[in-house]
Amino acid sequence: MINRIIRGAAVSAAALFLLAAAPADKAKDEKGGAPGSVYPEYDSPKDIPPRSFARDGAISTASLSPDGKHFLITRPSATGVNISVVPVDNDNHGRHMTDSVDNEYYENVQWVNNDRILIQIEVWTRDRRGRWYREVRLIAVNADGSSVENLYSTQVRKVVANVGGLIVHTLPNDPNNILINASADGKQPPSVYKLDVYTGETELVLKGRSGVSSWLADHNGVVRLGIGRKNDRLQLIARVEGEKKWQKLTDSEIFEDGRFFPLLFGYDGISMFVRSAASNGRFAIYKFNLKTGALSEKLFEHSTVDVRSIEVSDHKKKLLAITYVEDTLQRKFFDKKYQKLHNLVNKALPGRSNYLLSKTSDDRFQLIYSTSDRYPGAIYRLDSKKGTMVLLNEMNTEINPTMMSRTTRFDYFARDGLEIPGYLTIPRGIEAKNLPAVLLPHGGPANRSEIEYDRMVQFLASRGYAVIQPNYRGSSGYSYEFQRLGHGEWGGDMRTDIEDAVDYLVDEGIIDEDRVCVIGQSSYGSYTALVSAMKSPSRYKCVVAISPITDLPKHVSRTKKNSGKTAAKRMRGDRNSKQLKKVSPQHLVSKLKVPLLMYYGEEDGFLDKKSIEKFEQALKKAGKKYEMVRSEKGGHGLRKPKERTKFMRKLEVFLTEALGEGTVAPFALSNATIVASENEAEDTELTSVKTSAQTAPSKAETSGTDGASQ
Question: Whole-model pTM?
């Protein structure tokens, strides 16, 4: 149990958000990173140690206070998540807050006004009968570390009382209060309460209703939408601005679970922005009429991919842009000034995906996260009035982006004729011909790979292996219909899709068919890696499974219990337990013919520990060649830098033994530098955006923040 999470403290602001000090004595500036970036010098990417790839990013999340005077920053640490508030003006004499929350409990943190933040934590506890239940808490603290309050706590003892984030609305016009949705006794549907963020006093705003599991409020803080689920379909109740009467919206096919997502209330009092796959199967952004329960206007649909989200201005009360990912982040603009600004940002940071993390209430200041396939990324503070960007922090100064490898798109046809997109990373400076390769299916499975920095991809490429990332059927981003093609295809067509990617690249002469290993990074990716190696034993030379699902029938049963029939159906399809065993690693051990490297964290709350132990016993009994890497304090996947570092070292040796050494071109620094500059002129009609770097802090200021030093 946590007795006191936050303590006020005064620390150097520079240590919290400026560039890290030079990581090596032999270092020079090199183009490809942020202004003034300094990187270690190596003769070859192979010389970059695993710990450099394994490091956590310098910042996990960042946001500006509504008035833009403070940064709220979270960063990983050896003990959990560090939460810090620092002044924008870098006043080292000012007092601000910093503390740490254990990973086991931390959920999120956010501003509620210019001076106060809320931290949400979750604690799992057993009742008198030994049954687990969840307790959700809000802890409030001022930006200077004072007035710490264990503000609110609610229990979740039944599914109907389950809520994700407690906060419904931060009520900008009422700085002392917020709206939360929570169950009064942990057993009833959630109600909406007004919560005083200084005293913890609550006032009932809206009583919970049967069938409603979450509530949404409009821009003025008026609750106008309730959401629930029944029989694989969303159940909505809604009201238009100024009305008290609720309307039930339940009958339309557009509410089919998984294809309709309310995003944000519109500014006309009657509509919402929603993400829906109602038209051509691709997700598009629509206006949704809360009175009629119908889609009223399609705002944007891309011709080949799903839209992702929206960017709005509460200050201007208008939609600014809709985001989507083809291979990298793109925007469809609805505001000319916003378009001009971000075109200038993209010009200043070319070849990057430049994400909006946060902005002030007047839209002047924005936090931009800039990243690419070769670049771990950096966070900038953009002044839209002056046209300047100041570098706040580079994510990983031990990775020189010019030494990393390019990722490119390729498209191929599966054996049943379905066209599938994928990504291929070729080791830097090497001809794409007859290469040893690693097949890296993403997890989820309803996620997707894209052209962005991936530490495992770049680590493998630095060791001389081509990396293949197919977006097999079932992946998100390419239409709801494409995603549905993966339902019931665990171990089936999704598996053969990744095999067909290898065949295509072999036929193109890029990959050596006798030197391919399949690696899963967690859950489904590791499940399909195991099944692929077992069902096609002559295709691969080795298999790696990190936190794998090993007993599919049992996993489907647990999923049904924890997440419902729909989630289980998407895995199982129409197959019974006997049929599922035919694509379950636990029941295919005898077919494994290649070496296996496996990882399991003893504190993995997602996997069934007994299934892992049973799978290992079966491997031993069958005399299979395998190595199990266990971590006593590890969770699901390689979450901690120490675990990643140790596993990457083993992986490097494992791949060399199975595939032989990969080849990477030598590297020489060009001595090129990035010149830091800044435009101080106040110019609302911007013609350029210029970037600059802050002065790097001392080694003393940055010590102890890595967590991956061994």
Answer: 0.87
